[in-house]
Amino acid sequence: MDPATLIGLLLAFGAMFTMLQMEGANVSSILLPAPMIIVFFGTIAVGLASGTLADALLAVKALPSAFKGKISSASVLIERLVELAGIARGNGLLALEAEAHVTKDPFLARALQSLADGVDGDDLRDALEDEIATRERVDAVAYKWFATLGGFAPTVGIIGTVISLTHVLENLSKPDELGHMIAAAFVATLWGLVSANFIWLPIGTRLRRLAEIEADRMVLAMEGILAIQAGTQPILLEERLRSMVPAHELRGSKSKKEATAESPLREFEEAA
C-alpha cells in the first residue's frame, strides 16, 4: 500500500484548519451544511450528467485504489520473468503452461498460456498490445471523471455564492446580519475551490499515475514474454528489462542470490 494520497490530503486539510486557528477563526464557520450540499452534491450531479452511468460507477469502483492501491515492484516482476526464461530454456515453452496455472496475475497468465499454445510472435504482440490499450482506456475513464469533477467544483461553488448573495440582498434591511450572511455566502466558493484542489484533482491525478504504472508494468511483462519466446538468455533478458525501468524504481531490489533463496512467484503474486 502506498499512503501518499492519504497523507497528502490529511496534510492539506490540516494546513487549512491550522490557518483558521491561527487567524482566530472558528472552524465551524466554514462547516455550513447549505454551501457544502450545493458544492458536493451539485458537483457530483453535473459530473454524472456529463458522462454515462457506467462511467460514474467505474470511477466510484476505482476510488478505493487511489488510497490503498498497491504499486507492483518492477524488480520482482523482472526476477519472475528471468525465472520463466530459465524454465523455458531448460524444459521448453510447453513447460510454461503449468506456470500459467499458478500465476495470479491475469495478464501474465494469459501471455504464458499463449506461449505454451505456440501462438505466433507477431500475433502475440498484437494481442498483448490490444489488451494493454484496452486497460489504458478503462483506467482513463476513472481518472478523467474525477478530473471533470475538479473542473466543475469551483463554478458550482460560485453558483452557491450567487444564490446566497441573492438572499443577502433580500435582507438589506437587517444590517446587523449582513456580515455573517455575506461570510456564509463565500463559504460555497471556498468549498468549491477546496473540493477541487484538495479532493477531486488529487484523486484524479493519483489514479492517472497508478494507471501509468500499471501500463508500464504490462509493457515490461509483454517485452519479457516475447523475449522468452525468442529464446533470449536469462542473463541478457534481465539486463534488457532492467534497462527499461527507471533506476529509482529498482532501488532496494534483491540480489540474484537472495532472489533465488525465496520464491519469485510468491513475491510477484503478493506485489501484483
UniProtKB/TrEMBL annotation:
UniProtKB keywords: Cell membrane, Membrane, Transmembrane, Transmembrane helix, Transport
Region span, Disordered: 248-272
Location of the MotA/TolQ/ExbB proton channel domain: 103-218
Keyword match ATP-binding: no
Segments traversing the membrane: 37-60, 145-169, 181-201
Family of this protein: Belongs to the MotA family.
Protein known as: Chemotaxis protein MotA
Organism: Paeniglutamicibacter cryotolerans
